[in-house]
Amino acid sequence: MKNPKKQLEDLEDDPDFDDDRFLHEYRKKRLAEMREAAKVQRYGSVIPISGSDFVREVSQAPPDVWVVVILYKDGYPECGILLQCLEELATKYPATKFVKIISTDCIPNYPDRNLPTLLVYNNSAVKANYVGMHNFGRRCTPEGVALVLCQSDPVLNDGQSGSEPSRQAVLEGVRQRLIEKVVRDHEDDDDGSFSD
User: Fold this and answer.
1) How many folded domains does the chain comprise?
2) Domain contains 14
3) Distance of alpha carbon 183 from alpha carbon 39, whole angstroms
């Protein structure tokens, strides 16, 4: 059996236990991670804009940023429902920019019958548009809206620059939350269905 004092001295001399080197490497790695995270745009809410802001906030957004625009008017229940869904999605996907604009501020004489309308922009171009609520199913939920938005393009992303693994992770997460919600709703319906 080795002397504990000798073991300690051996460990102190061992380069594998060099705390300074470890801390330096850890700090360097952590700073690189923080720099990378800082590159990712962070929005996290639905930003109200006016007609004069549209070009700057939407058309001139960086090419790697997806922008979801809702055309709405106050007092329309469908607009309120879709706005609530977008608020939740904006917090879950802060790398995607969500903006809201009163429909007639964006497009003069825009028909109220088309409300709410979602426009999806990327790289200065409209990639998709969804007029009315029928696109999002009978019961409009954040999960349902997310599935529609991600059907053809990685509109919602987790900040990993729209890479395919990132897109798949987002879609899988949305599907999982949708399944969990359906199960919860079904269980809630079952709880009240028994009567004497």
Assistant:
1) 1
2) no
3) 38
Does the residue 5 lie in any domain? no
Q: Is residue 31 part of a domain?
A: no
Angle of CA points 133, 71, 82, to nearest 5°: 40
Residue 11: its pLDDT value, please? 66
Report CA 154 to chain centroid distance, whole Å. 10
Q: Do residues 112 and 73 lie in contact, with contact meaning Cβ atoms separated by under 8 Å?
A: yes
**Range in 105-109, 175-179, 185-189, 190-194 with the lowest mean pLDDT:** 190-194
CATH classification of the domain holding 84: 3.40.30.10
Q: Tell me the whole-structure pTM to 2 decimals.
A: 0.67
CA–CA separation, 85 and 174 (whole Å): 13
Task: Express each pLDDT in 93-127 by its tens digit.
Answer: 888 999 999 999 999 999 999 999 999 999 999 99
Give how far Cα 102 sits from Cα of 25, 56, 82, 131, 180, Å.
Answer: 51, 16, 14, 15, 34
* Residue (of 146, 117, 147, 121) closest to 134 by Cα position: 117
Residue 92 is assigned to a structural domain of this protein: yes
Return the structure tokens found at 181. Answer: 């919600």
- In this structure, what token pair is assigned to residue 193? 């269905």
Domain span holding position 85:
40-188
Question: Which is higher by pLDDT, 36 or 79?
Answer: 79
Which carries the bigger pLDDT value, residue 150 or residue 138? 150
